Amino acid sequence: MKLHSIETGNFKLDGGAMFGVVPKKLWQKTNPADANNMIDIAARSLLIEDENRLILIDTGLGNKQSDKFFSYYFQWGEHTLDKSLAEKGFHRDDITDVFMTHLHFDHCGGSIEWNKDRTGYQPAFKNAVFWTNKDHWKWATKPNTREKASFLKENLIPMQESGQLKFSSPVPKGGVSLVKHQELGFDILYVDGHTEKMMLPHIHYQNKTLVFVADLIPTVGHIPLPYVMGYDTRPLLTLDEKASFLKEAAAKNYLLFFEHDAHNEICNLQQTEKGVRLNETFRFNEFFS
Fold first, then answer.
1. Considering Cα of 217, then 220, then 226, then 227, what sign does the dihedral take?
2. Strand 129-133 vs strand 165-168: parallel, antiparallel, or unpaired?
3. What are the pLDDT digits (tens) for 108-157?
4. What is the number of other CB atoms lying within 10 angstroms of the CB of residue 148?
């Protein structure tokens, strides 16, 4: 097995929305805002080489939306998915599996692209299986009003119509929800605070456990328990899920892989008198070169 950090592109989001009820005076210490109250956000994917499989976890925003759409998100930097794959010696046609933690547009938008004539959409990874789970798929394709703007039909329906969509199983019903993905080999933690049945991969490699924390902990600044995004559908549940996960992550020295922290790729944690807190941050290549 070999792991690669894949930068798909940076953008900006409103700092207040990213930190919910936490005052700006506190969150700007770790995530400074610009004049428009926007903070730096990454869309970082993880690529797993495992024997005859090349697995990509999440795909970023993609590039098929309108200029007006992208004007809301202040894209910056030079990263693209194709450029990052090429730097590792790969092409998108080499990808065998695209695993989507959840189907918000900033996590799966890169899975679908315009067709050649720009008359419709097609999978951006023509040789890949697209993985989600039945509960989340139902949630995304029949969205509630709060999340409707995050679940875009043009990202979802073409997956289904392509025949490349598959569902992870089993989907746990309550209780401890860490299960093995039978086809891809890694463990999945299912969490429901941010959105229904978001999946967090646990990759065991070289006596370490790397957890792709997605939107449970978007950035280093979100590690303290009350620092919960305004986007979460069930923020009180997120508090419970974070508390449980952080306790285990600190005790077992998990490495947290950040999808949305534009300036920190990986960290570990420590238990303090104030609860679980950041210990150290690392560049990805410090562990996985």
1. negative
2. parallel
3. 999 999 999 999 999 999 999 999 999 999 999 999 999 999 999 999 99
4. 11
